[in-house]
Amino acid sequence: MSTYFRDYPDDNGFFGPYGGAFVDDGLKNEMKRIADAYIRISKSHDFITELRQIRKHFQGRPTPVYYCRNLSDRVGGRIYLKREDLNHSGAHKLNHCMGEVMLARYMGKKKVIAETGAGQHGVAMATAAAYFGMPCDIYMGEVDIAKQHPNVLRMKILGANVIPVTFGQRTLKEAVDAAFDAYLKDPDNILYCIGSVVGPHPFPMMVRDFQKVVGDEAREQFLEMTGELPDAVTACVGGGSNSIGIFCGFLDDKDVALYGVEPLGRGGNPGDHAASMTYGKPGILHGFRSYTLQNPDGTPMPVYSCASGLDYQSVGPEHAFLRDSGRVEYVTADDKEALHAFYELSRTEGIIPAIESSHAVAFACRYAKDHPRRAILVNLSGRGDKDIDYVFERYGLGEHL
User: Fold this and answer.
1) The whole model's pTM is what?
2) Which of the residues 154, 170, 185, 339 could staple to 142 if both were Cys, CB 3.0 to 4.6 A apart?
């Protein structure tokens, strides 16, 4: 039996050369307290029992695996979806948000804060905070607030305080900057619940562990449905929480190919995409080392994607490690491909996907055409309700794609 999850990350939070906690001494001590508290409660019978009850009775887990018969007939191959869009609040994000707020409660924190891009992490964090009765601040870039208006309203209805971020590109990276600044002012009373497998240790490990449920469920469900494992598994990659979650279920299955799909945006020129592992190089951002899109002077490069949840200059350190090891292949899909997949899945299956997830659907269609006898499982990480206004305003019904 593999010891991968016991071996990685190491005690200092490294996946090979990636990860760590590159923060000042005061915050380094706080990161150690968080790590120690997480290790204690994650092995606790009471914590595990409560989390399982929440997942079953509040979140509606397990989410199903679904065979896309119509889409498969159209493009070839066999395309399956892990329906994280049916997880309560509409995406995979609640899987780790409930766990993080439980950790905050255990540590005696008075408030939780978070960043959000597409708004799904913000909605999930607002949901978890409401469930546990804890105040919650959500930092969100002004550009994303305009793009993701339905999710902004959902966060406010759930009782969260949505704080606009008005500097820089006013998107996800700046939202992380603002949340870190707020956290540094009062780490004793606040827990910054990072929204992906990024940030200083222990967050990449914690979020992975909470998201691992997706892959564990999917592997068991696929075997039950088909009697075999999929030939390939794919998911979109921004920070990388949904993808690491489903990949975890199949890392030991060497005959299952794993594909992470990065956002190519408008193309390969600097500032036109957010494909950090395709075009980036190792560097440090937000307290961890991974592949990063950076200018020659080392500052973060401007990034772009039509998917607000993917336009980030770096990627989780475990993804960087899996890339270098060759276990996961990282590919790209551009805006046009993702939007075409958005409409295609909506019209063939009656499922409107998040634009983020549409990147993975786009690759799955490409894979299915090239491998008509194989099966590919997509992590449909979120639903597209949040994107409808933005998509219709800019692309109508997709006639010109």
Assistant:
1) 0.96
2) 170
